[in-house]
């Protein structure tokens, strides 16, 4: 018997559009979207990833209607801003450690203390586990190893896991995502932290969050907690493909089928 597709038990947000539109109709309301795998199709290397033109156009229209439109990612905030290119959006980078809005940049003090430790860990991992095709990315306040382009990604992941077990992590946090190993400072901000902080700062009454990977689980939990608190009309949607983490699906309220589903949702929301 063929297994049902990932996320099949979740209702499709496109078939339940009013659930999102009612949250975005609150005043003030905010829309939070991840970048890679959400408004950008996954690419062999981080530099090759490009924001969907269709999604960007819709985000621009939504920025004229909503109090806040935020793109939040593990990437550097400036990198997201360069790839999306809409001046009126808020760009939150390094999983919440930094943000850029218009020409102002803010960095969380929690994120600045462990840069030397991250560099030591990255050097140790590279000396033990590097194979051709791995990309070692320093992002200032976090770091990542991408192994999607390795000849054998499964083997590359095993090498990284073994090297990680043999390396002093110096108290840093490590997370596995879609063909990526993330390294962050201890107690560093994450996407859930960023969403909660922005909801409080902007006094949002409505919020929608869309994400696709393990680093978005904290964001989905924040949405659920905000809704449970009764002060915010909040929903979360998981972008579903064959590698969507089950923990994300368990936290999400709705699903969207890949980046194409996100494009369709954003377009409908912008035109509503």
Structure description:
By secondary structure, the chain is of the alpha/beta class. The protein folds into two domains: 13-108 and 189-271, Rossmann fold; 115-184, Alpha-Beta Plaits (2-Layer Sandwich), CATH 3.30.70.1020. Helices cover 36% and strands 21% of the residues. The protein is built from nine helices and twelve strands. The chain has helices at 17-24, 53-63, 77-84, 115-129, 153-165, 191-202, 217-228, 246-251, 258-271, and strands at residues 29-33, 68-72, 90-93, 98-101, 104-107, 135-138, 143-146, 173-177, 180-184, 206-211, 233-240, 254-257. It has an eight-stranded mixed β-sheet with strand order 5-4-3-2-1-10-11-12, sandwiched between helices. Strand 4 (98-101) and strand 5 (104-107) form a beta hairpin. It starts with 16 loop residues before the first helix and ends with a helix. The model has no long low-confidence stretch (mean pLDDT 92).
Query: In CATH terms, what is the architecture of the largest domain?
Result: 3-Layer(aba) Sandwich
Helix-strand topology string: HEHEHEEEHEEHEEHEHEHEH
CATH superfamily (homologous) name of the largest domain? HAD superfamily/HAD-like
Report helical residue fraction.
25-40%
Mean pLDDT, to the nearest integer, reads: 92
The number of helices is 9
Poorly predicted spans: none
Give the biggest sheet. Answer: 8 strands, mixed
Number of strands: 12
| Overall geometry | globular
CATH level-1 class of the largest domain? Alpha Beta
Note the beta-strand portion: 15-25%
